[in-house]
Design brief:
Blueprint lengths: L6 E8 L5 H15 L3 H22 L7 E8 L3 E8 L13 H5 L9 H8 L2 E5 L7 E8 L6
Antiparallel strand pairs: 1-2, 2-3, 3-5, 4-5
Helix pairs in contact: 1-2, 2-4
């Protein structure tokens, strides 16, 4: 396992679907340098993609004049990812989705992103911007949180 000194990497993405792949690749590269196993890197990529898509669609409402910021903070044993948008943020988290109802077509198949993010990382926190914008989701994935 490689020990990485505390390092920040920042990426600014256009609010256009597809650019979440840039954030996924960047997060994967940092996690690989830190010594994360491949299955955890895949979890991280999925969580980061979901967070970026939410920021693009819901936070910035597909407004291409706005951008999404992604800040990766690598510490000794964890990687923190903040995905920042210009939205107002959530008042409350949505209820846990009923996966069976979604699978059987009884509910909209969308709307599982936040639940998926929470399942894939060790910590997930949605923070509402104090100025009515610049809200973000904070994800943390730990080396020692790996499943064997």
């Amino acid at each position: 396992m490689n020990k990485v000194k505390a390092t920040n990497v920042e990426v600014r993405l256009p609010s256009r679907l597809g650019y979440e792949k840039v954030a996924m690749s960047t997060a994967a590269a940092v996690a690989k340098l830190m010594g994360f196993k491949e299955d955890r890197i895949e979890d991280l990529k999925t969580a980061v993609a979901e967070a970026c898509i939410n920021a693009i669609e819901h936070g910035n409402r597909l407004n291409e004049s706005l951008s999404v910021g992604v800040v990766l903070s690598a510490g000794g044993d964890s990687l923190e990812v903040k995905v920042i948008d210009d939205g107002k943020g959530l008042r409350t988290l949505p209820p846990k989705p009923n996966i069976d109802r979604k699978i059987h077509g009884e509910e909209d198949p969308r709307g599982m992103g936040m639940f998926l993010i929470q399942a894939l990382v060790d910590e997930a926190e949605w923070v509402k911007g104090t100025d009515g914008k610049s809200s973000y989701v904070r994800l943390v994935i730990r080396l020692d949180g790996e499943s064997e």
